[in-house]
Amino acid sequence: MSGRMGTAQGAALLVGAVLGPGMLVLPHLAADAAGPASVLAWAGMLALSVPVALTFAALGARYPGGGGVAAVVGLAFGRHAAAVAGWWFFGAVPIGTVAGVLVGGAYVEASLGVDATLAAWLILAAAFAANTAGLRTSGRLQIGLVALLVVLLATAVLTAAPHADAARFTPFAPYGAAGVAGAAGVLMFAFVGWEAASHLSGEFADRRRGPLRATVVTLVVIGLLYAGVSVTSVGVLGADMPDVPLTALLEIGVGPVARPVTGVVAVLLTFGAVNTYLAGAGRLGAALARDRALPGWFGKGGAPGETPYRSLGLLAVLSVPVLVGGDDLDLLMRATSACLAAVTTAGVAAATRMLPAGRHRVTAVVGTVMSLVGLAFCGGYLAVPAALAVVALLVLKANARRSYKIGL
């Protein structure tokens, strides 16, 4: 029985997978690293996204409902590679969710006067409580939150752009090529999520062309938004922009009324994104346990309709110390970017083996090369996915040894 999802709904879900609350702060972090030349990093990452996005769309068309990047990596390279890819995503969630709630906290403090750290703790606690109670962000609500973010970004760009000044683009590259590479490293946070095309493929009415059409529409939407936000934020606010650039742009374009509205919207966006990621990561943890990439004890509650309390508990145990000691938002986003960039690279590399010879495989090869370049921009933060890979392999080995002893 075929799915019923059309291009518009598929594109909405894909935009939601790629676009997140990180956009509330990434223009500031990128400009801080590269100055006005951060616009080059945005352009470079957009170029990188094209072959990667098209590759995952092709994977989705050929393997509908492919089970995620880890499953595709497992089919191409074996269960050890699948376990490593799974750990890269699972390990990124405690870091990325803390980065997300810190972004929301910063906007709450700037807009509503509530302490940023307190707001971050409250958002994180609410997301864990919602998941523990079995509450999920519905698909329609998630699409609504993404639409709200799109409207907010577009309003900020359109209303503030007339106040841009070309003088704010000079000096253009105060930190040289190294600064642009550094900006690209943190911007990886905004350019992951294209693998969702392979997850959603089975839901399209036209499973062969639906993922590709939705991906092309998403590339256009994301490209316009990111280009507009990157250029406008520098042109209006300058490279030395505030930590909450969206609030600043809206205040210039709309007026003081934008400040409290932006704070409330930031909370909704952050909670929605964190809640969704925790729900997915909880299930991923249970799946990793079933595949012996986590101790089997964490596998309980992973069946449909159940709540993976133990996996969620592990995520909470990992998240709390990150929030306690992780006040450096730039560091957290770069570490998360490195993990997610590794997942993306593994996925497109797997596609070079899974897709048949022809233009799709050529696109996958190009995507792999460009993903490796993007991965290199992460620099020393690649130590994080490297450490997670070691943990994944050690857990697999320990579980295999335990199974062997039980078998004896």
Automatic annotation (TrEMBL):
Subcellular location: Cell membrane
Gene3D superfamilies in alphabetical order: Amino acid/polyamine transporter I
Keywords of this entry: Cell membrane, Membrane, Transmembrane, Transmembrane helix
GO CC annotation terms, alphabetical: plasma membrane
Any Pfam family hit: AA_permease_2
Membrane topology: Multi-pass membrane protein
Transmembrane regions listed in the UniProt entry: 40-61, 110-129, 141-160, 172-194, 214-237, 257-280, 331-352, 372-396
Superkingdom of origin organism: Bacteria
GO molecular function: transmembrane transporter activity
Keyword set includes Transmembrane: yes
InterPro entries to which the protein is assigned, alphabetical: AA/rel_permease1, APC_superfamily
Protein name, entry field: Amino acid permease
UniProt organism field: Nonomuraea terrae
